[in-house]
Design goal:
single chain, 161 residues, mainly alpha, 72% helix
Length: 161
């Protein structure tokens, strides 16, 4: 599977998921969703605890980038409420389309699966973005949330969360 097309693996995983749901029925799906809910929010709480311990308490949300660098990296732009909503929808659509394109390229073997990250790497990037300030941290969380939302909308039972 390394570097090759993943379509057969996705088909096999989808078949396994359909078999799982068929044998267990709706009750199994509901129990699985409840377990995912507990694990997801439990993981979020553990992630916050990890960030507090690793970065010294709530201060990890304070920017650690020197002011001279921050001024070069950030451009502050303000929009009205309607323009902000429109830009937010457009940005969410851009990230969603990008996520789908990358998933398609991974399925076709055009992009390596090595670009996927697990919870430890995501936690590390969350810590790094938090060191840049709360705006960077929230932006990173939004990116992860949108990507997970796209995966949850796909009609693949294995990815349903």
């Amino acid at each position: 599977m390394a570097g090759g097309p993943a379509v057969p693996w996705v088909i096999a995983a989808a078949g396994l998921s359909v078999f799982y749901v068929d044998r267990g029925g709706l009750r199994t799906v509901i129990l699985t969703d409840q377990m995912q809910f507990v694990l997801m929010y439990g993981g979020f709480i553990l992630l916050l605890g990890f960030l507090f311990l690793r970065h010294g308490g709530i201060g990890f949300l304070a920017p650690r980038v020197p002011a001279s660098h921050a001024e070069k990296m950030l451009v502050r732009v303000q929009y009205g409420p309607l323009a902000s909503l429109a830009r937010g929808v457009a940005k969410t659509a851009d990230i969603s389309i990008f996520s789908l394109k990358m998933l398609g390229k991974m399925l076709l073997g055009e992009v390596s699966w090595r670009h996927l990250s697990g919870p430890v790497t995501i936690a590390d990037f969350a810590g790094q973005s938090a060191q840049m300030g709360w705006i960077s941290y929230l932006s990173f969380l939004a990116l992860i949330s949108i990507s997970l939302g796209v995966l949850n909308l796909l009609p693949i039972p294995l990815l349903d969360g």
